[in-house]
Amino acid sequence: MGTGTARGTGTADGSGTGTGTADGAGGPDWRDGSKLIGVDRPDVVLAAFERGEPHVGVAVIGLALNHDDPAAVLPMVARALESADREVRRQGVIALAHVARLHRTVDRRCLELLRRCPRGNEADDDLWSFLPHRELPLWLWRHHMWERLVDRLRRPFD
């Protein structure tokens, strides 16, 4: 992991000259969603949001997997979590889980947006697993403590 440069061809601010995919094998195809998981430039994702691309959530996941700077990724994750499209919101949750796992960080805006999502999702679990618990909000503590209690009551003699 570097100090803010993307793994592919762009830069942390998205101003690189690359194609927007980590593999460098041509740009994403927004019509069928191919190569979107390789997107590594925030400007490519932002432009897709502006155009209303239906597969933008996959590109957000790709950005979370391929970009080294979580400060550049988390605003795109937040935008996905705010989407009116249920599938894009679900993909935003997955992208947030990847950011938590890979970078061990989250921002307040994403936490506020995640709170609106159903509990027990990928991001809930990865935030709990990979971030210091003292950095997590009370609602996530309640969810995980309740989950532990229920699990303990189901297996009292293990």
Helix content: 40-55%
Radius of gyration: 17 Å
Strand element count: 0
Element-by-element helix/strand order: HHHHHHH
Question: What would you say this structure looks like, in words?
Answer:
It is built from 7 helices and no strands. With 158 residues, the chain is mainly alpha-helical. α1 packs antiparallel against α2, α1 (42-51) runs parallel beside α3 (70-81) and α3 packs antiparallel against α4. The longest helix is centred in the middle third of the chain and has 18 residues, at 86-103. Residues 1-18 have low confidence and may be disordered.
Short description:
This protein has helices spanning 42-51, 56-66, 70-81, 86-103, 108-114, 122-130, 138-154. It is mostly helical and 158 residues long.
Keywords:
158 residues; mainly alpha; 7 helices; disordered N terminus
Please describe the topology of this protein.
Layout: H1 42-51, H2 56-66, H3 70-81, H4 86-103, H5 108-114, H6 122-130, H7 138-154
Helix pairs in contact: 1-2, 1-3, 2-3, 2-4, 3-4, 3-5, 4-6
